[in-house]
Write a structure and sequence with these properties.
The chain has one domain: Aminopeptidase (3-Layer(aba) Sandwich), CATH 3.40.630.30. It has 160 residues and is an alpha+beta fold. Helices cover 32% and strands 36% of the residues. β2 and β3 (67-74) form a beta hairpin.
Length: 160
């Protein structure tokens, strides 16, 4: 398994992050209601997230120093993990589990109590089973808004 690490997003990463988002077309359609995003979207999203207390990060290959995915979270006693996305060509290889384990370990070292995720579940290919395998439990049903798109979602939590 390739060695990966998490670091803060910077403007030099925007072009690669656009590629990662756009490689996940179903995600874009189901979460944002669009087929593609551009660097302006990523830049605006990074500023918006920072302004409300989130940390926007990238997942980087230690060997090649290439960005493999993105991760956004809000640190608090209960950490809110709002996004964990890998480039589509890397999915299905266990890398998502590896990145989540790295993230969870970091949160435990920071003495966080739990992690919350909101999972859009109103389409067949949703990722609820992925999170259940990682120990998350469904708590409540909600409606999420991202841009002009409203989606049915489930709040899932895991105690650390």
């Amino acid at each position: 398994m390739e060695k990966l690490y998490i670091r803060e997003l910077n403007p030099n990463d925007y072009a690669r992050v656009v590629e990662i988002y756009n490689s996940n077309r179903q995600f874009l359609l189901n979460h944002l209601g669009v087929e593609v995003v551009d660097e302006e979207f990523i830049s605006e999203e990074a500023v918006t997230m920072k302004n409300v207390g989130f940390r926007s990060c990238v997942i980087v290959s230690e060997e090649t120093q290439t960005v493999q995915g993105v991760l956004d979270y809000k640190p608090d006693d209960e950490v809110y993990l709002s996004l964990l996305m890998l480039s589509a060509e890397l999915q299905g290889r266990g890398i998502g589990k590896e990145i989540y384990a790295l993230f969870e370990s970091k949160m435990m070292k920071e003495k966080r109590a739990s992690i919350r995720i909101d999972v859009v579940c109103d389409y067949p290919e949703n990722v609820v089973p992925f999170w259940e395998k990682l120990g998350f439990v469904e708590n409540e049903n909600i409606t999420l808004e991202w841009g002009d798109k409203k989606s049915k979602a489930v709040v899932m939590r895991k105690k650390l």
